Amino acid sequence: MTTEELQGIPPFLDRRIWTEEQWAAHRKAEAALVENARRIQAEHRAARRAAIRDKEEAQAEKILKRKQTRDEEQQRAIRREARKAARRCVLMAIEAGHETFGQIRTATKLPDNVISNTLYWLRERGSVKKASARRYTT
Length: 138
Hints:
Mean pLDDT: 90
Number of helices: 3
Low-confidence stretches: none
CATH superfamily: Winged helix-like DNA-binding domain superfamily/Winged helix DNA-binding domain
Shape: rod-shaped
Oligomer: single chain
């Protein structure tokens, strides 16, 4: 391009006539732009990594909670089966002729609180009747 063709360009845009100070300022500004772009990219990468980490932690927490719920359900099932077994055992003892609490305890070898709770449950549902203050019948 000739000088005549460049006549329409303002002097501050004509890099052919820039001084060394102008070139230094230009390089400094360009370096700042590049650094800013790199910083923004790094922040985006860090945000993506944090989002992935948060998602993985949430999934791990969900899996752990599911496992705990499953374990609690299994423990409840075990306790439920133990109560059912105690009920069957107490009923069989009463049907076998063991009428008092002490006789039932001796026959079943169950703890007192289990026998007491089981007898209460059975009386409430009508499976066992209290014949007297101390005797139980079916």
